Amino acid sequence: MREPPLSNCEKSFLLKAIREGKRLDGRETYDYRNIKISFGTDYGCCIVELGRTRVLGQVSCELVPPKVNRPTEGIIFFNLELSPMASPAFELGRQSELLIKLNRLLERCLRNSKCIDTESLCVVAGEKVWQVRVDLHLLNHEGNIIDAASIAAIVALSHFRRHDVSIQGDEVTVYTPEEREPVPLSIHHMPICVSFAFFQQGTYLLVDPSDREERVLDGMLVIAMNKHREICTIQSSGGIMLLKEQVLRCSKIAGVKVTEITELIQKALENDKKIRKEGGKCGFVESMPQQWITAFKVEKAPVDVTDVEEKAEGILSRAEPPAEAVSKPVLWATGTAQIGEGLESSWRDMEEEEGQVEDEDDEGAIDDPTLAVTQNIEMEDISGKEEKKSDVDVVVLSDSEEEEVIILEPEESRIHTRSKHPADSSATKTTAGKKKRKKKFAL
Amino acid sequence: MPGDSRRIRGPEESRCPLLYALPESPQAPEQARTEPRPLYARAGLLSQAKGSAYIETGGGGGGTKVLSGASGPREAERRDGPGLRGARLVCEFRWAPFARLGPRCGVGTALERELSLALQESLEPAVRLERYPRAQIHVWVLVLEDRGSAFASALSAASLALADAGIEMYDVVVGCALSRGPGGCLLLDPSDRDEGRPKSGGCLTLALMPALNQVCGLLCNGEWTEESLSQAVRLCMEGCHRLYPVLQQCLVRATKRKISVPQSGPA
Amino acid sequence: MAAGFKTVEPLEYYRRFLKENCRPDGRELGEFRPTTVNIGSITTADGSSLVKLGSTTVLCGIKAEFSAPPTDAPNKGYIVPNVDLPSLCSSRFRPGPPGEEAQVASQFIADVIENSQIVLKEDLCIANGKLAWVLYCDIICLDYDGNILDACTCALLGALKNVRLPSVKINEETGLAEVCMKEKSPLKIRKNPVATSFAIFDDTLSLVDPTAEEETLATGTITIVMDEDDRLCVLRKPGGSAISAEKLQTCISRAITRHKEVRKLLDEVIESIQPK
Amino acid sequence: MAGLELLSDQGYRLDGRKAVELRKIQARMGVFAQADGSAYIEQGNTKALAVVYGPHEIRGSRSKALHDRAVVNCQYSMATFSTGERKRRPHGDRKSSEMTLHLKQTFEAAILTQLYPRSQIDIYVQILQADGGNYCACVNAATLAIMDAGIPMRDYVCACSTGFIEDTPLVDLCYVEEAAGGPQLALALLPKSEQIALLEMNSRLHEDHLEKVLDAASKACRDVYAVLDRVVRDHVQEVCTLLGE
Amino acid sequence: MAWVRLSEAEKVYIAHGVQEDLRQDGRSCEDYRCIEVETDVVSNTSGSARVKLGHTDILVGIKAEMGTPKLERPHEGCVEFFVDCSANAAPEFEGRGGEELGTEIANTLYRMFNNESSLDLKALCISQAEHCWILYVDVLLLECGGNLFDAISIGVKAALFNTRIPKVRILEDEEGSKEIELSDDPYDCIRLNVENVPCIITLSKIGHRHVVDATLQEEACTLASLLVSVTSKGLLTGMKKVGKGSLDPESIFEMIETGKRVGKAVHVSLQEILNKEESLGKQRQKVGFLG
Fold first, then answer.
1. Which residues in chain B are contacts of C42 at CB distance < 8 A?
2. Domain boundaries, chain E
3. What family is it from (chain E) (predicted)?
4. CATH topology for E14-280?
5. Do residues A99 and A43 touch, judged by C-beta distance below 8 A?
6. pLDDT-based confidence at D5, cuts 50/70/90?
């Protein structure tokens, strides 16, 4: 489904508001929406909410052989999915331009900036390394996916714990969490994307655009930075012309925003750690505001299970016992048998006819002037061969089943048998074997 | 990175046990053969396809079994391209995974694609495509067991299926294959053993419209001299002519069955 | 006239027949179409069988190959079943990768293998942690006229019974496998699962072995897989109209009878191709 | 990073260039006869080919047409033998798709698309040999090809990559310098107005250095501009002589 | 443009011309257009060549990479063909549009090289069942002006001639573990014997006659053509009918004969150019796309 276009009136309203330095949700120009981070019960699972944009991050890992050109490095794979659940405008399974752009931005922001020590993921050089897979799912789309996704990715990675391994000789042992405490990944720094939206050819600038603002903007600039004010990625997009000064200004703002967000992330991580240590409850359910869920208040519907067994017994006793009489299969030929009969089907008459082996070379049918007499030829000359075979008695592989299949047509057969005999005699040997084979495959 | 979730997947890599087989006794020396192997053909056996045909050739210990189905003419899916004036013929040729000795064949290999195209180009001259503007006709060929000359049988089977589907054609296309042994002797309608012989000199598959004496498909590899190649083409054509009556009979029979006239010969 | 009525009101057409306790093709409600089994006809496969249920035709070919056993189960081999519904068998299928129905059927067959333990995966291991058999069971539908699940299950069982694996020795020195193609032995078949499918009409009537037409008109289908000890291996009822417990019990009884029939049929065929 | 010294104490780079020196640029317009515009560029060992078709009617579904401007359609593709290790696919992977997207953005901004409503302009670039600065070579080649096709633009679009090592910005990185993993920035600039058509940066660079690097990059882009301008003028002169004017 | 559309009148005009042995551009039926061949145009490949045949423009790059031999052929290296019909040649080829034609050409190349003598694959084996060279022959189609198969096969031959694979030594230490040492001397290399590498000659049937090296316009009036691959000695290593038409048997024999004759001539002149270029050595000015 295509997103319904924004009406001109809505557009001009939005732009006018931006010109006046106002935003629909009451934020200031450089304000972020509320960021909320919650963790799942498992390590490496989190939901990041940016306003109402929600991204679920999930990290998993497995042991794989490394890439040939980098034998001592682990592999990190990022995958962001935009499901129709987040917005009806997204189609499933199609690599849209937006998706490619976002995925590459994430890769560049997190992988190229080397925020994770990939060498620490190596188990046996050239043979086994950890492959870390970061799956991000957009659950709800209300603008600025990339910022939310980058936060979710780094939070999930920082929260994740992988199985511990030990190496003894060639043997690699992977310990379950019960055997050994899982180990966190070593993270060098935390790059976070900050998006800037430009309006009216770069005259106005907003931080963290919402979906409506995204639809009227002229261009975007994404800057990824860590709290040490190191820029990890810059990406301009959309068809606007920027000036150097604008870029520099944005990078200043990004520095401030990143520091705030990093603090928030660290607080959230510590908080979660504390809860887990104390053995408190964790998981998404805990982070859901109770008052929204009305289902908890519904009383349980009573299910009466007392007499289930008796009921079942009753049904069983009343049911007809399976019929004892079983139809007897008919063996057509070696390897072919049938049960049931009657009923015409297009495959069925095959079986009746299957004895009709056409061996035109053997019959010399090419030179045969009676070529026009088709339908019955084969049957008859088989009968001819049949006779022949018993006469000559060459290689009889297994003749017992053959008769069952072949339908002889007495009136005409004799005529043809006669006409075919001279050509037949030389070829009988091959035919006998052949016919048997044909029958094996009852097509 | 994401794998194919639409099939049930086995291990990443598996190897054919034949590779580890102990060496067997030497094969029987080849002999020149100028006669095609016996052939069994039957048209109109599938209940769902509009036209269908089954061909089985070869003897002893299994033969080449080919099943073909045709559907159409129906409305063309693609409206662009050069197909407006006549129908588009879409052909698919493939082997069942277990159709060949040796390793299990994968789906959509390069060879299958090449042969699908060759099949299409060999059938196109025979089908009166201009009678079905803006339409498309599908032909599928599935090789159930390949004991040599599978593509030649596929050509015949496909054209039978088209005829069985009632598509207008100029003639039935007959396929015939030939292989040349290292000694230079020509073997008509080779078995898989002949085809797979190391250092075999080459293989040729020819498609012929016998009534019009027009060659509508030719596919060959290996090393040939001009003379041997011409000789091979001639032999293949002869082979096609010999198979032609069988296919004709098969069609007549299928038609009779269709109109369900009780068996009373035209004589 | 009847043909016209059938095209315009297919459901009503069927109902008239069903009222008389018979079906347009002349069968009774509880009657299977003639079932033909042909085993061992594909010589290039290690085991094969062709099953026909009326017009529905399914071919199963099994190829055995070597592979390293899975890391989490070093004493097991693999069975890889795949059902292919090519456009050849019915115009309802598109060419290309397996469609929904083929995926569902493949999964169903995989479930049958897993639940019934038809062949123990341990039997397929050659050398612990080193080498194991992979059985690629490719089931191709050649003609689709309904009830492919029954046909596929039967074809799979037939083909598995036909499998002859060459003997394998591991060469001590080289560590490589040595295969002797001359000495072949059959697989050990532990269970004989047989499927029986029903189409449910108008929420009450159940027809056994539905044709393609009946499947499309039915309000629901149900497939029951039984083994020789009268145990349920798989019971598949994908949505559709509800069925009462009594009705279900009748279906199961029918499935038991069907199991006996098919078992006998397969045994007879296998017997006939046994080298004497 | 480790091992290789990318900038010697004397201020020379691996290939003997100075920090702000470009590689040798050679270019030719009008390489192919069948396309509407085409150009070939060599920047050191990076070789790129650009072909332009259009403006023409929209190909495929008409719903893609824009009522007020032309659709710019790009494809970035790398010859399978262009890289040190053979590439499996010429295009269609994530990186190439991203590059395609970037090219599209760059030229949507630079071409006066509003002059050709409801039509389409195809720009296809092909890397024949990759030795760093692929994006930049493509942009430069595409600029020439668009000019060859006679499609009006706001200005030349000149692109150049810049790295940053030991507090010195290095312009026009070659493959070895790129692979070292230091910060790198690609800039596509409209030289006259100093407007940035595309800015892309990777790896880690401290914010304080951003300005320095940006300055070096825009200087390099202006240098590229001088070369491209020369090529265009020579080409036009050549064509004029051929036409006998 | 991969193909053109012609009006009926244009087709008749071309067919009549062919009948008179005078084609649109003044050639006779068995004349080729001018072929430009240049080798060693992409420096990071093991061998490369660019071929220009009329408006057809082909770039072939060959890369030799180390790999493991195929299980069934442990004593041989392998050759992989890949044809990229890039969007440069025709907008229809954008995205996956060129794949169909690309695989068709690649499959044809596989077929024509599928014999014992075309290339000595045993020479590409380094150590049995362990290491071998895999030659990736990548063809890039830059412009289509008809007769792709011929131009590509000429390009492949020229690039194979130009290919230099570094020599390899296998060092074995006491424990039996092997190590592979690549020679870093650029002159210490293996060269391939291209004497038996075939060229494809496409014979297009127009009217009652057949022409070689058809242009796009001529291809548009061709119903059927025959690809014949010929070695320099006149051996035929493959044949294939393409197009929707059929051929009568007599014309096939004629076409085989013409193909063989023309093919031998093409090989002679190609070898001449390649030898000449080789003899110039380093003095040769590389033109590439700048000329």
1. 62, 65, 98-99, 144-145
2. 14-280
3. Belongs to the RNase PH family.
4. Ribosomal Protein S5; domain 2 (3.30.230)
5. no
6. confident
Give contacts of B 26-65 with A, CB under 8 A: 35-36, 38-42, 44-47, 54, 56, 59-60, 62-63, 65
Chain A CB within 8 Å of residue C22 CB: no
For an interface test with A, the pick among B40, B46, B56, B64 (most A C-beta atoms closer than 10 Å) comes out as B40
Assess if residue C250 is contained within a domain. yes
Is the CB of residue B137 less than 8 Å from the CB of residue B87? yes
- When scoring B121, B137, B208 by the number of chain E Cβ atoms within 10 A, the one with the most, hence best to mutate, is B121
Q: Tell me, yes or no, whether C93 lies in a domain.
A: yes
**Interface mutation vs chain B, best among E239, E250, E255, most B CBs within 10 Å:** E239
Judged by 3 or more CB pairs under 8 A, whether C touches A is yes
Convert chain E into a string of H (helix), E (strand) and C (coil).
CCCCCCCHHHHHHHHHHHHCCCCCCCCCCCCCCCEEEEECCCCCCCEEEEEEECCEEEEEEEEEEEECCCCCCCCCCEEEEEEEECCCCCHHHCCCCCHHHHHHHHHHHHHHHCCCCCCCHHHHEEECCCEEEEEEEEEEEEECCCCHHHHHHHHHHHHHHHCEEECEEEEECCCCCEEEEECCCCCCEEECCCCCCCEEEEEEEECCEEEECCCHHHHHCCCEEEEEEECCCCCEEEEEEECCCCECHHHHHHHHHHHHHHHHHHHHHHHHHHHHHHHHHHHCCCCCCCC
Residue B26 lies in a domain: no
Nearest to E138 among D49, D80, D129 (CB): D80
Q: Are A174 and A123 in contact (CB under 8 A)?
A: no
Q: Tell me, what CATH number does C243's domain have?
A: 3.30.230.70
Determine, yes or no, domain membership for C255: yes
Domain that holds residue C120: 29-273
For chain C positions 25-54, those within 8 Å of chain B (CB to CB) are 41-46, 48
Q: Find the closest chain C residue to A323 by CA distance.
A: C257
Per residue in E176-234, pLDDT tens? 667 777 777 777 888 999 999 999 999 999 988 999 999 999 999 998 999 999 999 99
**CATH classification of the domain holding B53:** 3.30.230.70
Domains of chain D and CATH, by start: 25-243 (3.30.230.70)
Domain A33-281 annotated CATH 3.40.50.80: no
Distance from CA of A331 to the nearest CA of C (A): 7
Q: Which chain A residue has the Cα nearest residue B51?
A: A346
Is residue B266 included in any domain, yes or no? no
> Is the residue at C266 inside a domain?
yes
Q: Does E114 touch chain B (CB under 8 A)?
A: yes
Mutate to test the interface with E, among B114, B195, B204, B240 (most CBs of E within 10 A): B114
Domain boundaries, chain A: 33-281
B47, part of any domain: yes
Enumerate the residues of chain C whose CB falls inside 8 A of the CB of residue B10.
67, 78, 80, 134, 136
Report the number of distinct structural domains present in chain C.
Answer: 1
Neighboring chains of B (3 or more beta-carbon pairs < 8 A): A, C, E
In a structure prediction context, what are the per-residue pLDDT tens digits for chain A, which is 443 residues long?
667 788 889 999 999 999 988 888 888 888 999 999 999 888 899 999 999 999 999 999 888 888 888 888 889 999 998 888 888 888 776 668 888 899 999 999 998 888 888 888 988 888 888 999 999 999 999 999 999 999 999 999 999 998 888 888 777 788 888 888 889 999 999 999 999 999 988 889 999 999 889 888 888 999 999 999 999 999 998 777 888 999 999 999 999 999 999 999 999 999 998 888 887 777 777 666 655 555 555 566 677 777 888 888 887 787 777 776 667 778 777 778 887 764 444 443 444 344 333 443 333 333 333 323 233 333 333 333 333 333 333 333 333 333 333 333 333 333 333 333 333 333 333 333 333 333 334 44
Query: Can you tell me the distance from the alpha carbon of C1 to that of D11, in angstroms, rounded to the nearest whole number?
Result: 96
* Residue B267 lies inside a defined structural domain of this protein: no
CB A155 within 8 A of CB A37: yes
Q: Is E84 within 8 Å of D92 when comparing Cβ atoms?
A: no
